[in-house]
Amino acid sequence: MTKDMHATLPNPEPLDRSMTPELQHVIDTKTKPPGSLGRIESLALQMGLIQRTLRPRIERPAVIVFAADHGIASEGVSPYPQEVTVQMVANFLGGGAAINALSRAAGMSLEVVDAGVASALPPAAGLIDAAIRRGGTRNFAHEPAMTRDETLLAIARGAERVRHHAALGTNVIGFGEMGIANTSAAACLMSRLCDLPIDACVGRGTGLDDAGLIHKREVLAVALARHPKSADPLDTLATFGGFEIAMITGAFLAAAEARMTILVDGFIVTSALLVAHAVCPAVLDYCVFAHTSGEAGHRRMLEHLGAAPLLELGLRLGEGTGAALALPLLRAAVAFVDEMASFESAGVSDKGV
What we know:
By secondary structure, this protein is an alpha/beta fold. It has 14 helices and six strands.
């Protein structure tokens, strides 16, 4: 890490696994054959280790959606105009988007953060104005998307939002995003951080046709060739990322530092995790991967991180929707540990089990 990284970034500790035998005993002595609840059992173990308890809980689960615009949108890499970003933020605030419906269904609070939307938004309940630069990032086809200082400020503001929720008692959190052309930013981050050719990273985003997909690949290939590779993940983030992606990077690190269970959404959010992981590998100890996105490239990201997602539903919307859909599985994990009888308490013989 460089000196400014040490001064700015949260620094999560690797998970203390010393309680593993005790937790595993609690899980294994429930009235069931060992391992018969599959991934639900491993979730319970992970959450118990994160919370350092034999009886993990879900407290005030939250999802934070970070929104920002991208200069690369001017290259025609998305079928939607940039104005859709601010329109969708208004939809979030009005309660009419998919993440509104799914977070309500999951019992998660929802916060929307303006990380740098091109058009100013009027003050509204549930909106946090944390914009780094009005107008969005610069066009990385020609110049770095962000300066180093902007990148560090965005990381700090993302971390600040997580710390706010931690102070309220949140111990499970997910992140979502909105920003026209942010799949282009994520694809370039993936290409550099996973050392993959750009064609393996680029997808159709919000619905490009074949000609649009070819154009997007060409634009991003030229952009990557323009900027030299760097061993510093924050330089890569500054060059190709977005304000919302940088804030999510900071949010990941702060959530892990606060010992939260983090529900990881799709392609864009996982691109931020690639950066956070490159900075501090211990962040993965606190992550539960919600799903495999239908966006091309996400599966390769997950392989790079050694992740095993819970769901495969063909989602490719973003917004944190996958995180909201996965929360009931975490609820199931804590419920069986808390509510299911043990062989001893139920007077059931465990011989032969």
